[in-house]
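Moderator note: this is an archived Q&A kept for reference. The question asked for a predicted structure of one protein chain; the sequence and the answer are reproduced below.
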Amino acid sequence: MRKILSVAHLEMIKSRSVIDRRVIIFLVLIAIISVIALPYIGISTFSMNRGLYIVKVTNSPLDAILASDGRFKLIDNGTSDLQISSSGIQLSRTERSLAALSAVDETIKEYSNYQLKNQYQKDSPEYYTAFPVWIDVTYLDSSLQIVSEETIVTSIPSPTATQEQNISSNLTPEIAPGPSVNVSGTSPRDIRPPFPFMSIMVSFLFVVPMFFISQLYSSSIMDERISRKGIMLLASPIRGYELVIGKTLPYFIILLVFTEIATIVLGGGFRVVLIMLPVVLIFLSTAFVSSITARNFRELTMFLVFFSIVMGSYLFIPTAFVNIHEYSIISPLTLVVNQLEGEVITNKGMIFASAPLLFVSLLAFLFGTLLMNEEGLLVKVEVLEKILDSIERLMHYLGDWRFGVIAIGTLLVPFVFMTQLFLLVIFFNIMNISPILVIGISMAVSVVVEEWTKALAPIVLIRKGYKNPLLLGILSGTGYFLGEKGLLLLALASIVQGDLGQVLFVGAGYLLVIPLGIHVIGAVISAKGITSGWSPQRAVLAASVLHFFINLMIIWRGDIFG
């Protein structure tokens, strides 16, 4: 423990010279201001569309009406999107001008609706004759269920012939009294779908500091690799895992402090910090692996941008659909938003959202730690060679090579699972546009990732002289099968039951023999191709094509395409 704390202390001293103190103060101030201002965002009059359209109004009664809508900026002269005068409206045939005209029409209707509401007293017969349809909208609890809307249309007696004659198409003020009724709800025109602005802001507040801190962390490790200072640390009586923990600890504590501050200000509890723990680990682990595998700072930047886009999409997109779609539970940030809104978070929901991130981050640290040696820090090779090197070292620690192949196949399943969840996040919202195309792309990506995962351990052994592709394929496929079934116990039925979920997790509820056979056949083909002199890419591609068509037949037989 003393060695770990010594490395952490040295890392903190070094970080002071990496980044200017003024930059740190600036980032801290921005974070504090954001945290303090966040609770007031939901009640503010902030409008993202303020001053969106420029309208020139001359001698028109619409002047006062448009002034009440913040989307319009009224001018007396100059270039404008619309020109409104007593003689009419002039517009150009541009998309912006047409959009402005549509906004003007909407504002006029809203103003007329407002005037009509103020003309009659609420709960009077005339009021309900002017607004005959009233709807109650109830948003159901959807922590682990499909979210739906329950609409109740209140039954109102049919108007008499006299009333029908007096109600004009424009709902003019001259409206005859209708039957005396008491209804609750709102007019259909006043219903607005909820915009998850608060959810998005909460997501940015928790995650943005992680982007900055993880980049500082990866830059520190990369700098030591290039300057070869890391070799000096390895020469000291410090083990590789102690060095990794010590260098990671300061950045981990900083991110926990940021998370705790945001949680306290937002009124959350310790459970919010617990939910965010895997998110902190996944950012640090991807930064660590990127710095170990990259050959230079330019390649490191490319890796960091890639992982930032992937993790940002994985965390942000589902959160935008909180209380709207069941797929939102994929992201831990959804649980954070629900917790802050006072909803009950079940242990099952926490496990499903957090377990994949936790497993992947721990495995990434494991494989990166295996590369913390002189060869791993100095030798600049391709990413695939780094991965194979770490797998070879892990199999050496595991002892028996047969057990090692099974264990590697099992341990790598969380990476595949995360990839499939990411595909759900990206594609679920466009399933209705082109379901066959989306299912095809999702399935193709999934099988390629699966076959690469199963082929890694056999590749290592084949390079060392093992030439039995059948045995290697059986061991690797069986290991992957065991890991897949174990991890899928954490999956929710609402995710797997969907069409896209069946594509990505096909075999989860099917006959166990079928997915086991598919995994073994694919692994055997990859191993056989490599032993026959094929490149790993070519062998994995052949196995992926066969796997794809087998999955396609299973899905077609299951009538997913209707």
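Archived answer notes: Residues 399-562 form one domain.
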